[in-house]
Protein 1
Amino acid sequence: MSYAFLHTSDLHLGRAFGTFPEGIRGRLREARHGVIARLAQAARGAGLGDVVVAGDTFDAETPAPETLRHALRAMEAEGDLRWFLLPGNHDSLAATELWRRIGAEGPGNLVVLDSPAPHTPAPGVWFLPAPCTQRRPGRDLTEAMSAATPDGAIRIGIGHGAVTDFSEDGSGTGIVPPDRAQLSGLDYLALGDWHGRRRIGPATWYSGTPEADGFKHDDAPGALVVRIDAPGAPVQVTVTETGQFRWQRLSLPLLPGEDAPARLAALLPPAAGRRDTLLRVEADGRLHLAGRAALEAALAAHAPDFGWFEADLARLRVEVETGDLDLIDRGGALRQAADSLLAEAADDTLGPDARAVAEMALARLYAFVLEVQA
């Protein structure tokens, strides 16, 4: 007896990405819809027939009608595969109308795991689901995974939530025991909720979202190919990448005298993939005014190459050399403003945030004057 399937979660179809400009926002929404086809391709590539979505197929309990319809039709189009959907915290069982519509309009190759009762997807194989009853159930729903199944069965738990001391916001409020697989005699525990891929134990994994949606996780988004050769046998888990977009944080430490634009260019990802990259550059250290001005110009030049680009220079300090302020002006209002900003940046009676703002304003003034003089 053996069984294999694709483990994924947290598709969050219909997510709005409202803090981003409209151009990239539309592309991000479309990429989330397109992940259904990419998951299907990954399953076929691994010789699998079943895709298990461990919660949060949808971003909200009331997705737009077109979001729901397009998702159901996309799964129907992959008719050689079966899709098993578990209600998560974003699309919990409290969304009765959502799951009623899925039951009424869903294709024949879609199975909703809306009950904690054991479900058999194949002879000798049992799913033990723990669907989320509401956004914050407040109790360990995975206790249901201890339900009895026939002797010699392969037992697969499917849940959604934070493992104890491992919650997405770092608060340590998770209620799923990390040893649930052992407690309930599971051959594998497929979890959703954490958007990064993570192995909790030999038979317990978070698949992570198949299409990245933030800068928090460094691994390329993907899904897990899970193979169980026999009840009690070690599970085999391999990663298959499924994401279109890459969200990347780039750390840029700098020292006075360095060629900041050259350092930046050396760290940027290859040109071929930049359109599908959301990049956040996080600079720190110190630069002279001229170096900072050159860095800001380089950042502005590279930004249009990327799907989305942001530079955080809040931790980059400024060093002022003799004669720097003379380049702004030797007298008059501009020089007075520069002298005032320099004094604020060096004033220990001000808080660090206020001094940083003064440094940034001085750097912007210096860069502006250079642009005008060019």
Protein 2
Amino acid sequence: MDVLAIWLGKLTSLALRASGRRATALPGLVVEKVFPGFLPRRLGRLRYGVVVVTGTNGKTTTTKMLATILRARHTVLTNDTGGNFVRGTITSVIQQSGWTGRQTADVAVFELDEAHAVRFCRLHPPERLLLLNVHRDQLDRFGEIDTTAQLLGRVARTTTRHVVLNRDDPRLTALADELPAAVSYFGVSAGLRAQFPTDDELYGDVGPTSETPASAELISLELGVTTTLELRIGDVVEHIELRAEGAHNAQNAAAAAALALTFDLTPAQIADGLRAVEPAFGRGQSFTIEGRRVVLQLVKNPAGFRQSLKTVAALQPGVTLIAINDDYADGRDMSWLWDVQFDSVLQGKSGAIVTAGTRAADMAVRLRYDELDVAVVEADLARAVERAIELSAADDTIVIFSTYTAMWELHRQLDRHAADASRSRS
């Protein structure tokens, strides 16, 4: 039965790729409809079970960090390119199984959308869970923040072995007493606490650092061309240079380290894994286009955009391109852009500003209210990239902030540019 399901999924993937489409969700959806018992049956065979990573921000990168760390000792099944619905996890199982049905993985690490995590847990209660944060997200999809916290609470209560919580997020720490699984924490030091506000602290003072002991704690952080940090893992302080840039990824590293400790890995093994992690798909990935370094950053809510904007001062771009779409996957309601403070970060540091995507004009208006001049308003993403190249010098950095659907299109364009440049050199 499983072999038939895998063949069906793989053939669906091949057909999608042949037509130039992504194969992250539909193969899983097809298999789910035809073979509804496939996913729980396959996951039930994993020796070390399933780790679920969820929360508002940081899921994809943290999943990639954790999967990379665990590969020091395990064979890992994961969906670290962002297919974070149940159908995406099914697609990952199919892609990482042989045509004969053979599955070599002994543990799965899955990023899951907050709402779809609840449905996943009805199919397979996870053995381990990592809860990153709770921030206001797409209101038309998730509703208010307390609704999201309730969803995460439902996931946590189904977890059977161990839950890791962000000790600096009170909506998450409030769950601890009601959980049947063991609980541990990650966090940041008192000196860094102001850089990582909770949702309630975005527009006011940051509260005190929690006194709850954390099994992994971000102690110090230096942002520049690289992201350098000190991370206490258990009782050992490790100095780590991340390839995944930004303060938010330093916090994600602490989260991944705390969960990895539940697998009895040593601090040195965990630190080595973090050093090896490449940026996740569209989350700080770099491309070289006509001599320019182009950095692509996904943004989808106020807290995440604020953290990503901090990379501008470190990278000192010649051009900043902001691409905003409002397709279903992005969320139709773009009012959250008014909750992002652009002036304090971009003023005098952004280089020329280009806005793009279906809401390019709305983004330009938003920036104008922060007294930021926009050089180009161009809805077409391909033309916007070309204009960014024209406005920049050959050795400049171009930073692109992009919503989800625009990111996929931009990623294809940047990949194509890079491939064309490689062919011309050869």
Protein 3
Amino acid sequence: MKNTNINKDEFLQLIEQYLDGKLPIEKVKGIISYYESYQVTNKWLEEFGSKNIVKNRMLLNIHEYIQAEESKQTKRIIIFKRPVFRYAVAAVVLLFVFFNLFLDSPSSSITNQVSTLNNTIKIGTDKATLTTEDGTNIILEKGENYISNNVVSNGKELVYSQNSQSKSEVVYNYLSIPRGGQFVLKLSDGTKVWLNSESQLKYPVSFTQGKSREVELLYGEAYFDVSVSSKNGGTKFIVVHALQEIEVLGTEFNVKAYKDDDAIFTTLVEGKIVLKIEDRQDELQPNQQFILNVSNKSTVLKSEIDVYSEIAWKRGLFSFKDKPLKDIMKVLSRWYDVDVVFEDKTLEDVRFKGVLNKNQNIEEILKLIQNTNFINAYDIKDNKIILKN
């Protein structure tokens, strides 16, 4: 690939194949080799702006992908797609790694129309509230340590003493994650739970010996890496929700059950789970997703879904595959703790595809979306974002 002539469109097509998981790792490495040859940068990057910024951002993201792939983890380059909308037009690919360049380039024909008044929007961070059995609320924050008899926190993770099994009454704690927050919980059996923004989990301080290990996801999103039953006296692990129950022997899965969503999404990453809804049971295999409609209790089982996109939030990313802007902004509103208003309701159905870093400033993301030309302007007033056509 190093010695092959390639034009800009072909190069961007390779990047999109990479996002869709259709590019072998060796070809991804070839992209870096080709890019380093400056066959790409010398000609094309005058259109994109600063060569150094492009190179640094692009190589960083591709290198991260290769490192993750080689360690059996999946990451993808940051790409955003402008879709077909109302008309049969060709899709255009925008690279997030170039987002500053499109804004700063003198040749850009896009005029940014932004009104910012008292912008207090902050990037989400590690924070949670621990509610103990007596109703005491303990604020857990990044950089702050907390130590109690059977639990410690370093400001990112709350860890309970392992192998402590109760022989008497079960004592419950609650971990609540606010909007703009995230936290990791390690239960006394060794099970690890990642909790997303605006989520709450009820769980025992220690599990009762010989009985099923049961926790309750009251609302929100959680990723479970369950300690195997063989290490816990053969007991099953159960995740309860008001509308469903998940029975586990030892596996990894994601449950998304937000109050303002129309459905509950259960996605199996590894192992096997049995999902129970009223009088029916369904067994999920890896890469399958079970969708439960909240209003009418109808269900859909999807096979071979993109697990990466579903659990990217746990790795510090937002991944959107053909998602309407309304859904994208709902996800962003939870992380940045903002309200979003669509001045033009037709914008809600514009579909995008791409990956965002959760550590990006909200204005960087809004400017990128604006550069698709579907949104001409946006306003930020205090903690409210107004999208305009």
